[in-house]
Design goal:
2 copies of one chain form a homodimer. The first copy, chain A, has 146 residues and is mainly alpha-helical. Chain A is 66% helix and 7% strand. In chain A, strand 1 and strand 2 form a beta hairpin. The longest helix of chain A has 24 residues. The model of chain A has no long low-confidence stretch (mean pLDDT 92). At the A-B interface, helix 1, helix 2, helix 5 and helix 6 of A face helix 1, helix 2, helix 5 and helix 6 of B. The first copy, chain A, binds a DNA duplex (30 and 30 nucleotides) through helix 4.
DNA sequence: TTTATATAATTGATATATCAATTATTTTTA
DNA sequence: TAAAAATAATTGATATATCAATTATATAAA
């Protein structure tokens, strides 16, 4: 039984792709690291590379809104991956620091993520990746302009 | 400031696309119809086309899990878009029926969705759409096999 | 300098996501 | 047929998504 509902297929496929990738990636991460989600992992990676990021900036990088980010960082602080401390230069912000426990995770996580990406992109040429970026870029532009 | 974190760009772009499309589509829907989300709308569309769907089947079509679907249908029943009734052929299931209020929405929703898709795919050729499906299909296959 | 505006983060309310456990029913198998 | 296995849906717990309102601080304008 086919459920073709007009031209939706494209968005269906796009959504399907990201969901399957996430499931796949989360599965591989959970095998090696307990108690961390992909998104929490991404927060650690970004903070590690750019330690001065504000919550707002992190939120944007991982596609969350500010309210979600507040709560996500709350749980990451509770789980001892992060520490919030004062930022005397701008007291509206916090300094978000990675704890030892967070750094432990950073020892293995990048490798896992790299391997996830590699295996999920297997058989896809550089040219195809470019194509993909170009086409999706057009969709994004169509959705965001005006 | 560029935040290039290894080869993640592809997945970043894919995720970005689907999120921007969703925002765009939701914005356009909300302009015309109050108090309905894209996903709730999709549930109505699928049920309209295939009235005998079970919750589980609907869930799969709109990328939710069963628990989410139970709750989503709860709220749609509470908001009077749907009605749950007994299914005497298999008492583990429900019959999910669209109410008058739900049918009202179906008068305008398909047109809005169609126009959303059309404008977000503007400038993208049939060939590019095929390309997209093929490449994303490979990623899905890579993530789901084994 | 005071006032107005902008910004970063939080909070409340409600919905959805996800996992694991549970209930009710149906189907399979011994 | 009785017991075991499978299926559809629900529930509980916890996290995240989203919107609107709020707090605290910083910056711009009068």
């Amino acid at each position: 039984m086919r459920f073709s509902l007009s031209s939706e297929t494209i968005f269906h496929v796009i959504e399907s792709t990201i969901k399957e990738y996430r499931k796949f990636a989360q599965r591989n991460i959970s095998e090696k690291i307990k108690d961390i989600t992909i998104d929490q992992g991404m927060v650690l990676l970004f903070l590690n590379k750019y330690p001065k990021l504000t919550q707002k900036e992190i939120a944007k990088l991982v596609f969350k809104d500010n309210a979600s980010m507040t709560r996500m960082i709350n749980t990451m602080v509770r789980k001892k991956y992060l520490k919030r401390s004062m930022n005397s230069e701008d007291r509206r912000r916090y300094k978000i620091e990675i704890t030892d426990r967070g750094n432990e995770i950073l020892k293995t996580l990048p490798h896992i993520i790299h391997s996830n990406r590699k295996s999920s992109l297997q058989g896809i040429t550089k040219n195809e990746r470019n194509q993909l970026e170009i086409i999706l870029g057009k969709i994004i532009a169509n959705c965001t302009q005006t």
